[in-house]
Structure formats: C-alpha cells, structure tokens
C-alpha cells in the first residue's frame, strides 16, 4: 500500500466522493479501478475520466483496497450481495463515513482490515484543492486491524487524497459518525438553511422586499463564511462594522439561545442512541415519502423563487453552475 504503484484500489461509487477519490489517488500514483452498476447514472462520467469501469463484483475481486463510496443507505445491501463474497482474502475495506459499521448494519468479515478516511469537505472541494496543490483535512480511523498495518493503509490513502497537505487527525468510527451527522444536521445543512429561511420569512412578513431580504440573509452569508474559514469568528469581527459587532453581541444569543442548544443536545442524543439512523432507514425502506415532501417544500420556499431571479443577473454564475453545485456534506 505504501508503494502506491503496486497497490490496486477499487472505488465503488463515482458520485461526489468517489470521483474525487479516484482522480486524486490516480494522480498520486495508485492503480485505480472504478466499480459501478452497468448502465448506472455515473458510469459514463467515470469512463470519460479515463477509468476502467467494471461491475462492483469484478472491480473488487483482485483489489488490495476497496473504498465503499456509494450512498450510505445502499451499503448494507452492497456488502451482503457483492462485497462479502468477492473481496480478496485480507483486503482493506475502506469507508468515507462510519455509519453502517458503527451502527452495526455491516459486520465486516474477520480477515479484512476495516478503516475510515473521511475528508472534511465535499468531493468537488477534495478534487479542486488537490489540483491546486492543497488538500482538504482528513480524519481517519481503524475498526479492524487484521494485518497489523491498517493504520498505515488509512494514512497512505488519506495522503493520496491530498489530506496530508492540510491535516490528518485520528478518530474512531463512533466519533466520526456521530459528529458528522450532528454537524450536517444541527449546523451546516439543517441549522444554516433553517436560519436563513426564518430570517427571510421574518423580513418579508414585516413588509420588506423579498429581493432585499434575499441579499441580507442568504447572499451575504458567503462573505461571512469565507471570513470564518480564513480566520475564525475573530476575523469576521475584524471586518464588520462596530454597529454590526454590537448587534452580533446582543442579538446573536437572543436568537440562538439556551433553548436552541438544549434542542441541539436532543438531536445529538437521537444520533447517539440510534434513533436517527433507525428513522432514516425506515424512511428509505418506505421509498422516501417524507424525504421527498421535505425536499419539495424547500424547493417551493419563496426564497428560492426570488433567489433564482436575482442569481440570473450574476453573470459569473451563468453557464457554469460551479463546483459548489456538486458539493454535499
Ligand atoms: P453520491 O450519492 O454522490 O454518489 C454515489 C455513487 O454510488 C454514484 O456513483 C452512484 O451511481 C453509485 N451507486 C449507487 N448505488 C450503487 C450500488 N448499489 N452499487 C454501486 N454503485 C452505486 O454519494 P456521496 O455523497 O459521494 O457519498 C458516498 C459516501 O461518502 C457516503 O458514505 C457519504 O456519507 C460519504 N461522504 C460524503 C461526503 C460528501 O461530500 N458528499 C463527504 C464525506 C463523506
Ligand atoms: Mg432545511
Ligand atoms: Mg449589512
Ligand atoms: Mg456572535
Ligand atoms: Mg455526512
């Protein structure tokens, strides 16, 4: 594994993470094959990127390391139908999110090394940063170390992704799974989108123009987040006016108060005790009825209509949806 050219890696799944991992590892000198369902939606993309694409069963047969980069909810079935009987004896099984292993949906064969390498960023960013000579921080963990070299494999893989250029931190499957779910639910995706929608609704219901409300609560958020990214909350405070700072100090904690934190703790408890995953699995098995309803409600929110009109005037967004459009948490 450490001598990259001799290590055969099979990447199963060619979506957000799969594509970025396959391209970065190939550019780092690994021998990469992509495993996909024949005729599936991303097969053409992998071929266009110059990869040999095989069925998942064929791709994993002679691989030294298999990275499972399909959606989380199909991994259990993929493991049972394909991986369990086709993985090479003593191979390394790698995940980018610990959910299935941590919550016991997948119990990996005992001869395997089982590791986790999770870039702390969406796939498009993992690729973009690599291409410009930088990297996205990666966290890694070892669940099963049959060979005694599992950690070495995980580090070599994370290095091949470009993670070593940023930072690599050791974690556990439990910590990665629970913190990743909490972050995307309470802050990054769920928290941030609900905060923006509530702010927009408050202004529009008070009679202000939707266009102005959009700029105030959504468009300008990028500038603030860029400052967080570069230098934390301190850097943001250095860039905003004294008036904005005073307003932040007195009103921020009125909006995000102790009751919000108490509900964040409830969200975390549901993640930790398996309630969230149980509900998500049931929803998935039922054919995603509520998921689709929620998704439609977000798409139908008035902020989306005004946003579409305003973004049509941002010439730099035209004809290029931008890498961010491929990004997911
Ligand atoms: P995705 O939905 O973008 O892509 C999934 C890929 O798997 C597609 O190529 C799809 O065609 C393929 N696929 C679906 N079912 C399959 C099957 N039965 N057999 C073979 N291939 C199949 O997925 P993603 O968002 O990249 O997530 C992959 C993994 O990475 C998940 O474990 C996720 O939690 C983790 N992760 C994702 C991100 C992210 O930014 N998206 C970040 C960190 C970790
Ligand atoms: Mg939402
Ligand atoms: Mg302002
Ligand atoms: Mg504040
Ligand atoms: Mg996640």
From TrEMBL:
<feature type="binding site">
    <location>
        <position position="216"/>
    </location>
    <ligand>
        <name>Mg(2+) 2</name>
    </ligand>
</feature>
<keyword id="KW-0460">Magnesium</keyword>
<dbReference type="InterPro" id="IPR014359">
    <property type="entry name" value="KARI_prok"/>
</dbReference>
<dbReference type="Pfam" id="PF01450">
    <property type="entry name" value="KARI_C"/>
</dbReference>
<keyword id="KW-0521">NADP</keyword>
<dbReference type="GO" id="GO:0000287">
    <property type="term" value="F:magnesium ion binding"/>
</dbReference>
<dbReference type="GO" id="GO:0009099">
    <property type="term" value="P:L-valine biosynthetic process"/>
</dbReference>
<protein>
    <recommendedName>
        <fullName>Ketol-acid reductoisomerase (NADP(+))</fullName>
        <ecNumber>1.1.1.86</ecNumber>
    </recommendedName>
</protein>
<feature type="binding site">
    <location>
        <position position="123"/>
    </location>
    <ligand>
        <name>NADP(+)</name>
    </ligand>
</feature>
<feature type="binding site">
    <location>
        <position position="180"/>
    </location>
    <ligand>
        <name>Mg(2+) 1</name>
    </ligand>
</feature>
<dbReference type="Pfam" id="PF07991">
    <property type="entry name" value="KARI_N"/>
</dbReference>
<keyword id="KW-0028">Amino-acid biosynthesis</keyword>
<feature type="binding site">
    <location>
        <position position="180"/>
    </location>
    <ligand>
        <name>Mg(2+) 2</name>
    </ligand>
</feature>
<dbReference type="InterPro" id="IPR013116">
    <property type="entry name" value="KARI_N"/>
</dbReference>
<feature type="domain" description="KARI C-terminal knotted">
    <location>
        <begin position="172"/>
        <end position="317"/>
    </location>
</feature>
<dbReference type="InterPro" id="IPR000506">
    <property type="entry name" value="KARI_C"/>
</dbReference>
<comment type="pathway">
    <text>Amino-acid biosynthesis; L-valine biosynthesis; L-valine from pyruvate: step 2/4.</text>
</comment>
<feature type="binding site">
    <location>
        <begin position="14"/>
        <end position="17"/>
    </location>
    <ligand>
        <name>NADP(+)</name>
    </ligand>
</feature>
<feature type="binding site">
    <location>
        <position position="42"/>
    </location>
    <ligand>
        <name>NADP(+)</name>
    </ligand>
</feature>
<feature type="domain" description="KARI N-terminal Rossmann">
    <location>
        <begin position="1"/>
        <end position="171"/>
    </location>
</feature>
<keyword id="KW-0413">Isomerase</keyword>
<comment type="pathway">
    <text>Amino-acid biosynthesis; L-isoleucine biosynthesis; L-isoleucine from 2-oxobutanoate: step 2/4.</text>
</comment>
<keyword id="KW-0560">Oxidoreductase</keyword>
<dbReference type="InterPro" id="IPR008927">
    <property type="entry name" value="6-PGluconate_DH-like_C_sf"/>
</dbReference>
<keyword id="KW-0479">Metal-binding</keyword>
<feature type="binding site">
    <location>
        <position position="37"/>
    </location>
    <ligand>
        <name>NADP(+)</name>
    </ligand>
</feature>
<comment type="function">
    <text>Involved in the biosynthesis of branched-chain amino acids (BCAA). Catalyzes an alkyl-migration followed by a ketol-acid reduction of (S)-2-acetolactate (S2AL) to yield (R)-2,3-dihydroxy-isovalerate. In the isomerase reaction, S2AL is rearranged via a Mg-dependent methyl migration to produce 3-hydroxy-3-methyl-2-ketobutyrate (HMKB). In the reductase reaction, this 2-ketoacid undergoes a metal-dependent reduction by NADPH to yield (R)-2,3-dihydroxy-isovalerate.</text>
</comment>
<comment type="similarity">
    <text>Belongs to the ketol-acid reductoisomerase family.</text>
</comment>
<dbReference type="InterPro" id="IPR036291">
    <property type="entry name" value="NAD(P)-bd_dom_sf"/>
</dbReference>
<dbReference type="GO" id="GO:0004455">
    <property type="term" value="F:ketol-acid reductoisomerase activity"/>
</dbReference>
<dbReference type="GO" id="GO:0009097">
    <property type="term" value="P:isoleucine biosynthetic process"/>
</dbReference>
<keyword id="KW-0100">Branched-chain amino acid biosynthesis</keyword>
<feature type="binding site">
    <location>
        <position position="241"/>
    </location>
    <ligand>
        <name>substrate</name>
    </ligand>
</feature>
<dbReference type="GO" id="GO:0005829">
    <property type="term" value="C:cytosol"/>
</dbReference>
<feature type="active site">
    <location>
        <position position="97"/>
    </location>
</feature>
<dbReference type="GO" id="GO:0016853">
    <property type="term" value="F:isomerase activity"/>
</dbReference>
<feature type="binding site">
    <location>
        <position position="184"/>
    </location>
    <ligand>
        <name>Mg(2+) 1</name>
    </ligand>
</feature>
<feature type="binding site">
    <location>
        <position position="220"/>
    </location>
    <ligand>
        <name>Mg(2+) 2</name>
    </ligand>
</feature>
<dbReference type="InterPro" id="IPR013023">
    <property type="entry name" value="KARI"/>
</dbReference>
<dbReference type="GO" id="GO:0050661">
    <property type="term" value="F:NADP binding"/>
</dbReference>
């Amino acid at each position: 594994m450490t001598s990259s050219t001799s290590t055969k890696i099979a990447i199963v799944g060619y979506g957000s993470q799969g594509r970025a991992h396959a391209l970065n590892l190939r550019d780092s000198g690994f021998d990469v094959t992509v495993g996909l369902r024949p005729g599936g939606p991303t097969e053409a993309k992998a071929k266009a990127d110059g990869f040999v694409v095989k069925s998942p069963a064929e791709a994993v047969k002679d691989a030294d390391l298999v990275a499972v980069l399909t959606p989380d909810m199909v991994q259990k079935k993929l493991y049972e139908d394909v991986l369990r009987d086709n993985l090479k004896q003593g191979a390394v099984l790698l995940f980018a999110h610990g959910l299935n292993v941590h919550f016991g949906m997948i119990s990996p064969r005992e001869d395997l090394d089982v590791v986790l390498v999770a870039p702390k960023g969406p796939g498009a960013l993992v690729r973009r940063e690599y291409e410009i000579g930088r990297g996205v921080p990666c966290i890694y963990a070892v669940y099963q170390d049959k060979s005694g070299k599992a950690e070495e494999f995980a580090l070599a893989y994370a290095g091949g992704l470009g993670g070593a250029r940023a930072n690599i931190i050791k974690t556990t499957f439990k910590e990665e799974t629970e913190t990743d779910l909490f972050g995307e639910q309470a802050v990054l995706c769920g928290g941030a989108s609900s905060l923006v929608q509530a702010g927009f609704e408050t202004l529009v219901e008070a009679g202000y123009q939707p266009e102005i409300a959009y700029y105030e609560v959504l468009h300008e958020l990028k500038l603030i987040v860029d400052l967080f990214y570069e230098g934390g909350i301190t850097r943001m405070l250095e860039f905003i006016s004294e008036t904005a700072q005073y307003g932040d100090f007195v009103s921020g904690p009125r909006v995000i108060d102790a009751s919000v934190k108490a509900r964040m703790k409830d969200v975390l408890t549901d993640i930790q005790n398996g309630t969230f995953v149980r509900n998500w699995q049931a929803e998935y098995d039922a054919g995603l009825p509520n998921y689709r309803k929620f998704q439609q409600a977000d798409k139908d929110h008035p902020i989306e209509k005004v946003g579409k009109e305003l973004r049509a005037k941002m010439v730099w967004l035209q004809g290029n949806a931008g890498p961010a459009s491929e990004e997911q948490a």
